[in-house]
């Protein structure tokens, strides 16, 4: 479903992605972990096209999108959430979601019909709100939402475009344990057919959501394997989990 | 859900009724002023499309007004065209030029966008200033008005011409209001709010910015054509950057992001400067104080602040409107 082939990116002499490759099957849920500065978000940005790779290829559902812009890649099926909330802050929750639903329905060239006449978009948005547990705050402007709700909306916007691959960049970052639990349940409840790539620091979330883990360090893949393999790997223990935690 | 009777539309209706009433009762000079303000209001609405809806702060929007004016002048005076096709061509030409400019400028952001639009408009100004064929710095006199005998309007009568500009303004308002409540308008609001997010949702942001830049240019071209017909004259001054600056101030003073706000800004700023300048020669000082007051006490603009209080008030809510 998603394939990254030897992606490389450097800023001067600083190599931030050193021939990173990754392959996700349809319906697979994969976590990308690694210490801070390992290049996880950079890797995400290389996949979505927000940063142009120096070399390497990105293939979405059999389609080579390497040379394409980030909006074209989104249309090809990449949906992402951001590590730092990246929402339409002056709009309400429902307006955030309905804007994203309108984009998913490719309505942008419709200029002769009122947006409010598109009932199916409104319904889509309401369904999404239910999916990410925001039904009670539909009409609240985003800037007045709690942080946890904002994070949920962040995922909601990524889901709105009905992506083939959902990419979540630390969906639980900065959350309280209770909020994390809500987010974890939310991710688990997503349809099994949806391919998910998730960057996460919270190991409970990682182990709860995914079967397979890719460990990044200094911009390259340290190890890739099942949860068990990674948990038992000596390299990872040393580099990342720390001996005490193992 | 949006109501049919939004506050915006209510105020728009009020303004139209008031102007129609005034165009009958006031004297010659007042009628001229109504036409002038109405044309300015159309121009201000076109700029608000960029500033308030797409977040593109242009300091060169007068270039497209000027192109509309010059096209109208050149085609009718030098080539003897009829006014109606000339107006259509003027609008199309302003759209074409804004497309050519837009392709390069919509990629830029913030201060770079401001500076490049300023520079481009000054290039147009310089061209028409130096070009003897189109009158150079003397400008071009002798522009006629659209013949509206068929509709029972004598356009040389200032009251009738004021009515004509009002009708055009209403049509522009309705058209743009529909446009901005459409999904296309929603995309623009999304882009204004968070361009990067729209891109990562799959929107080719630059295409939409270009589209609105062209539409804004066309409406500005229309207001330019009307202005040329109103004054019977066009000069390079029409596209000087201060004209862009003044209309930008109008849009901001009125309140960005709503078409009515732009209209209110145009009306109030023009009326105030007219009134104060008849009282004292230091009128610019008082205009400056007025703008400072707006920035300090009504940062959403005059209409924006008014709308905020209205929506909070009981009266508006009891009329069955949500507080959106």
List the helices and strands and how they pair.
The complex is a heterodimer of chains A (246) and B (324).
Chain A: E1 2-11, E2 14-24, E3 29-33, H1 40-48, E4 55-60, E5 63-64, H2 70-76, E6 78-80, H3 93-104, H4 119-131, H5 147-160, E7 165-169, H6 177-189, E8 195-199, H7 203-209, E9 212-217, E10 220-226, H8 227-232, H9 234-241
Parallel strand pairs in A: 3-8, 3-9, 6-7, 7-8
Antiparallel strand pairs in A: 1-2, 1-4, 4-5, 9-10
Helix pairs in contact in A: 3-4, 3-5, 4-5
Chain B: H1 7-25, H2 28-54, H3 62-78, H4 83-105, H5 110-130, E1 140-141, H6 158-181, H7 183-193, H8 195-201, H9 205-231, E2 233-234, H10 241-254, H11 259-279, H12 283-297, H13 301-312, H14 314-318
Antiparallel strand pairs in B: 1-2
- Bin the strand percentage of chain B: under 5%
Q: How far is it from the N-terminal to the C-terminal residue of chain A, by CA?
A: 33 Å
What are the segments of chain A in which pLDDT stays under 50 over at least 5 consecutive residues? Answer: none
Counting DSSP E segments of at least 2 residues, the number of strands of chain A comes to 10
Could you state the oligomeric state of the chains shown? heterodimer
Structural category of chain B: mainly alpha
CATH class of chain B equals Mainly Alpha
Tally of separate domains of chain B:
1
**Arithmetic mean pLDDT of chain A:** 91
Q: Would you tell me the structural class of the helices and strands of chain A?
A: alpha/beta
Poorly predicted segments of chain B: none
Q: How many helices of chain A?
A: 9
In which range does the helix fraction of chain A lie?
25-40%
Strand order of the largest sheet of chain B: 1-2
**How large is the share of residues in beta strands of chain A?**
15-25%
């Amino acid at each position: 479903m998603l394939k990254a082939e030897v992606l490389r990116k450097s800023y001067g002499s600083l190599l931030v992605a050193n021939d990173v490759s990754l392959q996700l099957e349809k319906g697979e849920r994969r976590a990308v972990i690694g210490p801070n500065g390992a290049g996880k978000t950079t890797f995400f940005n290389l996949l979505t096209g927000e940063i142009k790779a120096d070399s390497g290829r990105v293939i979405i559902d059999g389609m080579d999108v390497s040379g394409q812009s980030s909006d074209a890649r989104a249309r090809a099926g990449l949906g992402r959430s951001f590590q730092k909330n990246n929402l339409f802050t002056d709009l309400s929750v429902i307006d955030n979601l309905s804007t994203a639903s309108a984009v998913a329905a490719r309505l942008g060239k419709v200029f002769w019909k009122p947006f409010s006449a598109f009932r199916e978009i409104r319904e889509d948005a309401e369904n999404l709100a239910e999916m990410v547990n925001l039904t009670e705050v539909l009409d609240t402007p985003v800037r007045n939402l709690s942080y946890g709700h904002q994070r949920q909306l962040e995922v909601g916007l990524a889901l709105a475009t009905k992506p083939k691959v959902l990419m979540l960049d630390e969906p639980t970052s900065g959350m309280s344990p209770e909020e994390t639990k809500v987010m974890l349940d939310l991710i688990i409840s997503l349809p099994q057919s949806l391919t998910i790539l998730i960057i996460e620091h919270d190991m409970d979330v990682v182990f709860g959501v995914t079967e397979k883990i890719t460990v990044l360090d200094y911009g390259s893949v340290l190890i890739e394997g099942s949860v068990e393999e990674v948990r038992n790997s000596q390299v990872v223990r040393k580099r990342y989990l720390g001996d005490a935690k193992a | 859900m949006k109501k049919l009777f939004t506050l915006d539309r209510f105020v728009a209706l009020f303004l139209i009724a008031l102007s129609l009433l005034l165009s009958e009762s006031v004297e010659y000079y007042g009628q001229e002023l109504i036409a002038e303000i109405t044309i300015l209001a159309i121009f201000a609405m076109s700029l608000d499309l960029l500033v308030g809806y797409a977040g593109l702060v242009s300091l060169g929007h007068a270039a497209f007004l000027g192109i509309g004016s010059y096209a109208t002048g050149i085609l009718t005076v030098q080539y003897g065209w009829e006014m109606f096709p000339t107006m259509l061509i003027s609008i199309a030409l302003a759209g074409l030029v804004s497309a050519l400019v837009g392709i390069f400028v919509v990629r830029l952001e913030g201060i770079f966008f401001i500076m490049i639009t300023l520079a481009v408009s000054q290039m147009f100004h310089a061209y028409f200033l130096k070009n003897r064929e189109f009158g150079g710095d003397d400008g071009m006199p002798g522009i006629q008005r659209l013949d509206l005998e068929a509709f029972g309007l004598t356009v040389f009568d200032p009251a009738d011409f004021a009515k004509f500009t009002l009708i055009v303004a209403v049509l522009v308002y309705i058209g743009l209001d529909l446009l901005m409540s459409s999904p296309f308008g929603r995309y623009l609001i999304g882009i204004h709010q968070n361009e990067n997010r729209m891109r990562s949702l799959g929107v080719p942001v630059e295409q939409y910015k270009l589209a609105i830049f062209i539409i804004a240019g066309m409406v500005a071209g229309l207001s330019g054509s009307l202005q040329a017909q109103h004054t019977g004259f066009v000069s390079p001054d029409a596209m000087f950057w201060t004209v862009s600056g003044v209309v930008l101030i109008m849009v901001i003073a009125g309140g960005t992001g709503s078409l009515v706000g732009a209209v209110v800004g145009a009306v109030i700023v023009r009326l105030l400067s007219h009134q104060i300048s008849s009282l004292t020669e230091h009128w610019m000082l008082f205009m400056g104080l007025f703008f400072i007051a707006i920035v300090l006490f009504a940062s959403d603009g005059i209409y924006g602040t008014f709308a905020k209080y209205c929506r909070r008030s009981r009266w508006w809510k009891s009329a069955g409107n949500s507080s959106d």
